[in-house]
Amino acid sequence: MFDSWSDGLTGSENPDTIVVASDTTVTATFIRTYTVATNVVGNGSVTKTPDQATYLLGDTVVVTAVPDSAWVFDGWSDGLTGSENPDTIVVTSDTTVIATFVRTYAVITNVVGNGSVTKAPDQAAYLLGDTVIVTALPDSAWVFNSWSDGLTGTDNPDTIVVASDTTVTATFVPQTYAVTTNVVGNGSVTKIPDQGTYAFGDTVVVTALPDSAWVFDSWSDGLSGTENPDTLVVNCDTMVTATFTEDPTGIRETILPKRLELFQNRPNPFNPTTVIEFALDRETRVVLSIYDVTGKELRRLVDRRLPVGFHKEVWDGRDRRGNKVATGVYFYRLHTSHRTLTRKAVLLK
Q: Span 76-99, mean pLDDT?
């Protein structure tokens, strides 16, 4: 490129004008220019500062690698080496600079149930081949069940080798507990509902049934007192012991109800189950139903002929299709051939 005039002219104006006054020599000086070209491998771009078509010997040019979304700058090659970004070129020749970009991937965690998932290292993006350790952390009264989506199985913690965008789902299920019964003396214990395991917060109604010539004395271990039936709220593996003692008379008194009665459900409010007890003073056909506040029958617990005596049924808070009903006020009605009785129950979740 043209640099300047000398001898009969000075400066760098081009073109310039000479006024002839004598023999004159004019010298034009030209200097070499150089190019700085940029190129990329992967998805991204390179900026130059200053951004010019050509540069002079010794000029400095700052180059900056700008990755596209989901890509990261990996390093320079050709006219530069290393991974410093931005970096500086001192111009000494025509130069090409290549910026290499590599793809990044997301590892997203999700949960079913109550719990959380940690990642180590915990980053927004990972490179191909990175390893990520995921750990499932259940909330109180829940347990880790299994992985799905980007992982399978039950190993916890487990490791992901990154090969693509990945979602990992940890499934948690409620902790289950055993409720076992024991007796001291002669008798037995029933559980309602009678299940192998129960979830945290379930209620179990236990009833002590003495053998002939024995009477129920008290509960111990997971329950105390003498209420019979009694209700256990499950929060751990529990043993319930019923103690029976011999009836000093040798005869266990049988008490028969003297009138039709419908007792208040226990517990009330309840979640998820409650016991409804009633007394029949005669053998009769009985219909025991659950209704909502609009008067719609949701569930029929009993529809059969029953003998004189005390009876109980458990409502598990579900309608006739097995669906859980919503929090609210419900009515249970006992209908016989000679009388109908109704009481109110409250379900709280």
A: 95
Q: Sorting pLDDT into bands at 50, 70 and 90, what band is 252?
A: very low
Tokens of 116: 């959380």
Spatial distance between the Cα atoms of 141 and 139, rounded to a whole number of angstroms: 6
Please give the Cα distance from 340 to 337 (Å, whole number).
8
H/E element holding 69? none
The pLDDT assigned to 195 comes to 86
Of the candidates 161, 193, 198, which has an alpha carbon nearest to the alpha carbon of residue 273?
193
Contacts of 87 (CB under 8 A, 6+ apart): 62, 63, 76, 80
Say how far apart CA 156 and CA 208 lie, in whole Å. 43
Tokens of 193: 């509902």
Rg (CA), the chain: 43
Structure tokens at 326: 């919503």
d(CA 141, CA 114): 9
pLDDT tops 90 at residue 247: no
Of residues 180 and 25, which shows the higher confidence score? 180
Question: How far is Cα 130 from Cα 105, in angstroms, rounded to an integer?
Answer: 10
**What ranges do the domains of the chain cover?**
33-104, 106-174, 177-246, 261-347
| pLDDT reading at 29 higher than 80 | no
What's the whole-number average pLDDT of the chain? 91
Task: State the Cα–Cα distance between residues 209 and 190, nearest whole angstrom.
Answer: 8
pTM beyond 0.85: no
Task: Look at the chain and count its residues.
Answer: 349
Indicate the CATH number for domain 261-347: 2.60.40.4070
